[in-house]
Amino acid sequence: MYQSPRGTSDILPEEQPYRLYIEKKAADIARLYGYKRIDTPVFEDTELFLRGVGGATDIVQKEIYTFEDRGGNKLTLRPEGTAPVCRAYLEHGMQNLPQPVKLFYMEANYRYERPQSGRYREFHQFGYEAIGDSDPVLDAEVIDMAWQFYVSLGISQLHLIINSIGCSHCRPQYLEKLKTYYSTDTQNLCKDCKIRLEKNPLRLLDCKNDSCRRLAASAPKSYEELCPECAEHFSKLKTFLTVLNLPYEIDHCLVRGLDYYTRTVFEIQPEIEGAQSTIGGGGRYDGLIEELGGKPTPALGFATGIERIAANLKRQNLSVPTTPGPLIFVAYLGEAAREAAVNLCSQLRKSGFAALQAPGSKSLKAQLRQANSTGVRYTVIIGEEEIKTGTVQLRDMTTSQQENISAEQLKILLGKSNQ
Ligand code: AMP
Predict the structure, then answer these.
(1) Does residue 171 contact residue 165 with C-beta atoms inside 8 Å?
(2) Residue 293 sits in a domain of what CATH number?
(3) What is the pLDDT of residues 311-345, one digit of tens each?
(4) Which pLDDT belongs to residue 273?
(5) Residues 216-258 pLDDT 10s
(6) What is the mean pLDDT of residues 157-166?
């Protein structure tokens, strides 16, 4: 038996109501904050992610699905949404539109991770990007939008964690301080962090290893080492968050996994224990568009995992709206009536009523059994007598009562049931 590849899963019909609900709320919140939908290809030139996400990141080093196509092009399955959106922003000349340009996406992403609860190799994200403005009011708005999105879904007890990791002016000095701090204690670092100390020292701060965490707790704090511009930006962000009534915690260990972040980084975590508790996060990436070949363009964004949201809805026992099933089953008695049943079923669907019928030549009893198992409200039975008189037998499946009615009466009755 074949199985779906490790870290992927089928989204079965019973899971779909959660998806639909989350996607609808995402589209609603995007409209409220003025974001328009964009869809980018599922694969891009590998170079885009090397430059855009950063060659030293875990994603690029260990997690990307990369392949060469028959034309010898090096391609990568999209591991995240921001770099492709920025590529599209540049490719389609969106820098000439009024700024900021606000775009959102809902898409599948691919990372070769060790699969575990809440962490998959194919997963889905709702994300949005505001490109072309550096005002901290936009940082606050992006965070507010994420928060209000979760609130609109009914997810409660959320924690907002923020930090500022500075910019290309103040970060190098901070990284030096960080390296000096850690280099006196390298024997207590895990194997990965010893490499990170050279390649990507910021990531030492969010290592999950116990002894690395102990060291990180007393490490120099980026928000205490900001240049005056970054400090001002961070201070204004905090003021706006207070205005928006968003309670936040500052965590100097929050640095996020991707190289492109500058200044604001943030995560939202529901109140549960465990490494996979982050439901969404984002930050500012003022250098990314330039890195991809554009003019210096400030920007920021946010992304959240649909699977993790669905898990939170289930954990909180939050019910989601379900799509109503078919309303009516059309059964027949005899071959001539079968043709009439096919016709009636088609007529009903054209009039907007969800209708089913049984394939194959089945006895009336077998058809009624099938009708019962589908959960329809009504079954219509057509036999030779009904064809002659232009009527149908209507069976109410809840009361088992049956009556003879005209096709017109049937539509009126169904119209009332559909409301
Ligand atoms: P990131 O793009 O890594 O900042 O992740 C943003 C959000 O996407 C996370 O908070 C998760 O909700 C979700 N996410 C990231 N990676 C995965 C994964 N491998 N499996 C499931 N969800 C993920």
Answers:
(1) yes
(2) 3.30.930.10
(3) 999 999 999 998 888 999 999 998 889 999 999 99
(4) 57
(5) 999 999 999 999 999 999 999 999 999 999 999 999 999 987 7
(6) 95
Q: Is residue 143 part of a domain?
A: yes
Q: Which residue's alpha carbon is at the smallest distance from atom 16 of ligand 1?
A: 119
pLDDT value for 276 = 53
The answer as to whether 160 is a domain residue is yes
- Regarding whether 97 and 24 lie in a shared domain, the answer is yes
Shared-domain flag, residues 35 and 141: yes
Which pLDDT belongs to residue 56? 75
**How far does residue 247's CA lie from ligand 1's centre (Å)?**
23
Residues 363-372 pLDDT 10s: 999 999 999 9
Return the pLDDT at 53: 85
Cα(258) to centroid of ligand 1, in Å?
12
One domain for residues 307 and 333: no
Atom of ligand 1 nearest to the CA of 256: 4
Is residue 332 one of the residues assigned to a domain? yes
Ligand 1 centroid from CA 415, angstroms: 44
Tell me how far the alpha carbon of residue 127 lies from the centroid of ligand 1, in angstroms. Answer: 11
- Please indicate, yes or no, if residue 23 is contained in any of the structural domains: yes
Determine the residue of 107, 125, 149, 254 to mutate for testing ligand 1's pocket, defined as the one with the most ligand atoms within 8 A of the Cβ atom: 125
Q: Print burial letters for 375-388: b (CB count within 10 Å at least 16), e (below 16).
A: ebbbbbbbbeebbe
DSSP string, 193-261: HHHHHHH-GGGGGG--SHHHHHHHHTSPPGGGS--HHHHHHHHHHHHHHHHTT--EEE-TT---S-TT-
384: domain CATH number is: 3.40.50.800
Q: Domain check: are 62 and 139 in the same one?
A: yes
Indicate if 297 and 341 belong to the same structural domain.
no
Nearest ligand 1 atom, CA 119: 20
Give me the pLDDT at residue 419, please.
64
Number of domains observed in the structure of the chain: 2
State which residues form the domain around 287: 13-170+226-315
Residues enclosing ligand 1, CB less than 6 A?
80, 111, 113, 118-120, 123, 125, 257, 278-281, 303-305, 307-308
CA end-to-end distance (rounded Å), the chain: 44
